[in-house]
Structures are given as structure tokens and as C-alpha cells.
Amino acid sequence: MLIYFLISILIIYLLLIIYFFYFAYTMFIGAPFVPTTNKHVKEMLELADLKTDDILMDLGSGDGRFLKIASPKCKKCIGIEINPILYWWSKIKLSKIKNITILREDLWKTNLNQTDVIMLYFIQSKMEKLKAKILKEMKPGARVISYGFSFPNWQPETVCGKIRLYRI
């Protein structure tokens, strides 16, 4: 019986170590998972002014709460999440909502050219690189909603507290 207990403890420690390394990796490439409050999600959606034919992408979709709230308002919602735990959690949780797709991939390798609206929470040190990708890949008129951080040398169209709307 003691051996099963020790094996269980070892497995838990290994899972915690794996999660720590994925957390560190996601901080290195973008931002850690920080859940956005439902209040801020709704404010971001109001600012995005979603249309029924819009394709929305959440870069770093975490637990998928943003996609769930946005899904009735647009044609398709795509979540990009590199953390395998958050990916599976949101994939399972949102599996019954037909217009939501969760992809486990690196956002730097994600093609943005069909996206009408991007939602993101990023870290300031990566915003310049992300701005270059967005301006290169997104179509004119597309909207970018950033929570918490601003793009350098890009004037937002609208600012509402910590939420900024940029237009291509």
C-alpha cells in the first residue's frame, strides 16, 4: 500500500514539474495564463463590435471563457493555446459549441490572414514583434483588442480603461 502512495506522490510531483516548465515556456513566448474577468470580456466584446460574419481569434485562449461568451455573436471563434493543460481543458469544456475551434499551436506560427478580430492579453516586451505579425498578416479593417498592454508606435482607435481597440 505504501508503494502506491509513493508512486502517486511521485506522479503528482512530475506533473507539477511539467506544468512549471510549460508555464515558464508560455511566459517566454507570450504571457502567462491570467483569466480575464467576465466584466472585462464583455467590455472587450462591446469594443470589438462583432458582426455575425466575423471570424474571431483569441491568441492565448487559456480556459476558453472569452470564446464561450463571444461565440453567439460571430461566425467562428478560434482559440490558440500552447499550454497542453489549458488546451485540453478548454477543448473539452467547449466541445459542444459548434462554432468554436481550439488549436494547440504556437501563435507565432499561426496564420492570421482570415481573422477579422483578434483578442489578446500579452506582455509588453513581445508587443512590437506581435504588431509586425498582425500588420503583415491581417486584412485592412480588421480589429485588434488588447487587454492590459499597448502596441508601441501604434495609436489605438479607442481606449476604455485597460482595453485598447486597434484597427488595421
What would you say the CATH architecture is? 3-Layer(aba) Sandwich
Instruction: Give the helix level as a range of percent.
Output: 25-40%
Question: With helices defined by DSSP (H or I, 4 residues minimum), what is the helix count?
Answer: 5
Cα(first) to Cα(last) distance is 62 Å
- Which superfamily, in CATH terms, is the homologous superfamily? Vaccinia Virus protein VP39
Biggest sheet, spatial arrangement of strands: 3-2-1-4-5-7-6
Low-confidence stretches: none
Main pleated sheet: 7 strands, mixed
Going by helix content, strand content and strand pairing, the class is alpha/beta
Shape estimate? globular
Please report the total strand number as a whole number. Answer: 7
Number of domains: 1
CATH topology label: Rossmann fold
Please state the average pLDDT score. Answer: 87
Determine the strand fraction and express it as a percent band: 15-25%
Q: Roughly how many Å is the radius of gyration?
A: 17 Å
What's the SSE pattern? HHEHEHEEHEEE
| CATH class category | Alpha Beta
